[in-house]
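Structure (tokenized):
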């Protein structure tokens, strides 16, 4: 955004920050931010509300009132042009009399896909595109992935020693990283639609998979267990605590176990087996996309992480590294991949690195486009 006029760059940066407020709360919709301004004077701000509605533009227009007339609208995604449960945002912007729309990126949804821009231009509104596009596409990569590939963005999160170990030989793993890293992990949970662990991890760790930070306790994501043979008992915390829980399982999983879990309130998503006899995780992710999920955080264990990496289904890795070395007798973060050489190893590029107390938090992106 360095080549844009300072006011435009500042307003779009604000719109992007507003949009991020909706991450993890607005699926199946994108998390959009919007700023209405006359020059440097802001007259309205909005972001997509929980559940996906109202949209960001509607919120900003409501706050601006009559001051929206003649204003510039800075929005992180092309305004919608289709009529669903609410009127299209293009119609609202035209009716409000905005003079100019600056959009970070287009909306690939076939119901929009350029039509929003065309309607605005047909109404005499100046349209500019591309300011803040890289940031907007990174923030809404989950929505873009669901529209483009049918599955949510998959982010793998792990907390390890410097040599990639997640537990001592006896299985003890609390706590490898410090309080700041653990708090960052909870903030990650709050910004994802769902969090998934393998069945063995669920049994061994008995996790709550919630967000336990003050002010974010209502942002706990949907819980998902990848449990092909349904080893999770209906009395397990994830099944019995009253919060929504889904389980991916094989089509031929034990019928009695399936009924017991469904009676406990767990939603089962039955999947075919792949060539190795295990669940077809690509099919599972497509089913999650069909259900509207856009952002999936995977927290373990090593077998599930390896299966997703081997199938080229991991888009990002959040790797928290503690300043400690455990050695080869510790449990590895990633299970066996079966790669015959470095050329077959999944590759990622570094996106960001920062300190989290005494630990390091690295964000890696897949080398192929998201």
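Design, position by position:
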């Amino acid at each position: 955004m360095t080549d844009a006029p300072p006011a435009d760059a500042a307003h779009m940066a604000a719109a992007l920050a507003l949009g991020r407020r909706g991450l993890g709360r607005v699926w199946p919709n994108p998390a959009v931010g919007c700023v209405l301004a006359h020059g440097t004077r802001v007259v309205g701000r909005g972001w997509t509300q929980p559940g996906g509605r109202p949209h960001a533009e509607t919120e900003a227009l409501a706050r601006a009132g009559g001051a929206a007339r003649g204003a510039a609208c800075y929005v992180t995604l092309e305004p919608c042009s289709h009529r669903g449960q609410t009127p299209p945002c293009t119609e609202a912007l035209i009716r409000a009399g905005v003079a100019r729309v600056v959009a970070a990126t287009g909306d690939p949804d076939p119901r929009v896909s350029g039509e929003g821009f065309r309607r605005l231009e047909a109404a005499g509104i100046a349209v500019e595109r591309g300011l803040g596009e890289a940031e907007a596409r990174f923030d809404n990569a989950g929505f873009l992935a669901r529209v483009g590939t049918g599955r949510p963005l998959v982010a793998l999160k792990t907390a390890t020693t410097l040599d990639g170990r997640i537990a001592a030989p006896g299985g003890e793993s609390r706590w490898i990283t410090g309080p700041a890293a653990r708090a960052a992990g909870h903030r990650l949970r709050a910004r994802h639609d769902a969090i998934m662990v393998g069945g063995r991890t669920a049994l061994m760790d008995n996790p709550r998979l919630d967000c336990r930070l003050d002010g974010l306790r209502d942002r706990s994501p949907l819980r998902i267990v990848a449990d092909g043979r349904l080893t999770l008992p209906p009395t397990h915390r994830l099944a019995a605590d009253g919060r929504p829980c889904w389980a991916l399982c094989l089509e031929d999983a034990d019928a009695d176990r399936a009924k017991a879990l469904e009676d406990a309130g767990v939603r089962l998503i039955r999947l075919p087996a792949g060539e190795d006899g295990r669940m077809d995780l690509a099919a599972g992710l497509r089913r999650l996309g069909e259900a509207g999920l856009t952002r999936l955080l995977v927290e373990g264990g090593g077998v599930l992480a390896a299966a997703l990496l081997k199938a080229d289904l991991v888009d990002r890795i959040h790797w928290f590294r503690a300043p400690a070395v455990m050695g080869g007798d510790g449990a590895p973060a990633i299970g066996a991949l079966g790669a015959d050489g470095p050329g077959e190893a999944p590759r990622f590029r570094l996106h960001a690195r920062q300190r989290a107390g005494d630990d390091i938090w690295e964000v890696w992106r897949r080398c192929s486009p998201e």
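Reviewer-requested clarification: Residues 6-20 form the longest helix (15 residues). The chain is about 30% helix and 25% strand.
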